[in-house]
UniProtKB/TrEMBL annotation:
MF (Gene Ontology): L-gulonate 3-dehydrogenase activity; NAD+ binding; protein homodimerization activity
InterPro entries per record: 3-OHacyl-CoA_DH, 3-OHacyl-CoA_DH_CS, 3-OHacyl-CoA_DH_NAD-bd, 3HC_DH_C, 6-PGluconate_DH-like_C_sf, 6PGD_dom2, NAD(P)-bd_dom_sf
Gene from which the chain derives: Cryl1
EC number, UniProt record: 1.1.1.45
Catalysed reactions listed for this entry: L-gulonate + NAD(+) = 3-dehydro-L-gulonate + NADH + H(+)
EC primary class: oxidoreductase
SUPFAM superfamilies the UniProt entry points to: 6-phosphogluconate dehydrogenase C-terminal domain-like, NAD(P)-binding Rossmann-fold domains
Domain 3-hydroxyacyl-CoA dehydrogenase NAD binding: 9-189
Protein name: Lambda-crystallin homolog
Amino acid sequence: MASPAAGGVVIVGSGLIGRSWAMLFASGGFKVKLYDIEQQQITDALENIRKEIKSLVQSGSLKGSLSAEQQLSLISGCGNLAEAVEGAVHIQECVPENLELKKKIFAQLDRIVDDRVILSSSSSCLLPSKLFSGLAHVKQCIVAHPVNPPYYVPLVELVPHPETAPATMDRTYALMKKIGQSPVRVLKEIDGFVLNRLQYAVISEAWRLVEEEIVSPSDLDLVMSDGLGMRYAFIGPLETMHLNAEGVISYCERYSEGMKRVLSTFGPVPEFSGATVERVSEDMCMKVPDDPEHLAARRQWRDDCLMKLSILKYQMQPK
Ligand code: NAI
């Protein structure tokens, strides 16, 4: 358990992502204060976290070495931001993805924090140079972008502002490791960071293949879920190259011409509109009707799968 001297963590915004962060930090032994502009959100978050932790115990997937009760006792609500941040080592902002709102929150924090605390945003796509420029504490600012659901998908992209101090990156990296997440250092900010750039590259080619009637939408998805995705849950595309030949050098020697030939046939950025939207939607709705109940049930199934996968990944760690 983190010693009390290690200081606490503040979550600003107690919605979906704020609640997940709270559970993760508590699993690492940190005291967590949940702040929100809406008192009701804090109350709901605390109740929801209690239920979630209970079901994690039942499924045997509670993280960390502390008991459920110990973890719950570390999380409390606070309706006053200045009070919440007192003595904190890390502040994780989780308000909606709106640049003006986030800038307002960071300007507010900038006025009340000391020179030691890390100011971290959960933003999925807002660039640090847009979020943090002009702040007195810009050296302490960073984006720590989680992946939904963060409790089962451990990746966190750490994205610095050009003026972020190396120590801020290092401390955030160490903190993420401590709570069992899998941080990656994005060395320079870039639109889409890394995860969404990869995701959009895949979506883009998937869309073109369906648009050109090469494959049906459902079969396209199977190529990922029963093909590439099986492997990608354990090794990335670069290690795949390494293993699919006698190392990366050999892979490039053997396959680079073929890769370049195929890549040169990729089409332009799709419009994501018109008849293809109808076709993809029709296929997806046959599998999962797009009403709230069916979507929620399918998300629950996805999260259950991810939970089991995270257990398997833990068991299968290379010796
Ligand atoms: P959400 O809408 O579930 O929660 C936002 C919370 O912020 C609400 O509780 C709201 O009351 C609170 N809030 C609004 N204004 C506030 C203020 N001025 N001060 C304090 N609290 C305030 O949003 P969600 O989904 O949790 O997203 C939060 C951030 O995490 C966004 O930047 C989003 O892009 C990012 N993110 C979301 C992911 C997702 O799948 N939902 C995945 C990765 C990152």
